[in-house]
Amino acid sequence: xQPHEIVAxxxxxxxxxxxxxxxxxxxxVPHHHHGQAVSLAERQLVTxxxxxxxxxxxxxxxxxxxxxxxxxxxxxxxxxxxxxxxNRLDEAITAxxxxxxxxxxxxxxxxxxxxxxxxxxxxxxxxAGETVTRLAEQLVSxxxxxxxxxxxxxxxxxxxxxxxxxxxxxxxxHGRPIGVMALASTDADRFYxxxxxxxxxxxAELVAAAITRLAPVLEYARDETPExx
Length: 229
Prior knowledge:
The protein has 2 domains: 1-85, no CATH class; 88-223, GAF domain (Beta-Lactamase), CATH 3.30.450.40. 50% of the residues lie in helices and 15% in strands. The chain starts with a helix and ends in a 6-residue tail after the last helix. The model has no long low-confidence stretch (mean pLDDT 86). The protein is built from 9 helices and 6 strands, in the order H-H-H-E-E-H-H-E-H-E-H-E-E-H-H.
């Protein structure tokens, strides 16, 4: 008989283990950890312990992810409150930068905005350049990883050389980009390609909503938005 046939027969005949309990107790099999023979009963216990360890490890990971998500949600909530309290565009930008650096522990945050009705002089409103505006159009979802366009990386100034991982996303209003935000860390594992981007997407929507509340999108830019079909 083939091994799978023996297994199938035992599954179909569970009474076998009761009828031949004494004989089964005399069967010894190798222990894959210690290299010594153990009874079938002991071998089953070893298997159950191994499975329990795997389940405990997975449960621990789930609990850790849950705790991390709770912390992130709380930080995002505090950022939301700070943005709601802002009465001017510069206050909203300052609040966002402070929260992301102090609460989230990032090493750097940069922002560029365009097509806004904002009668203020802010570095975030400096011309972003055609390369960046095209990049924003292509950022359908946040990017995470070790690379960043030179034009964007230069915004970090003297600190750019020490930064090793980045999160980058577009800020959108009326279906089109009105800016980009880049987050940076000196920790190479902070932003990586396989990480989830749910919170970054929510952050992008939150910041965009706060900005357009205080500096609406220019009418000409809004008129250029293609109509949905």
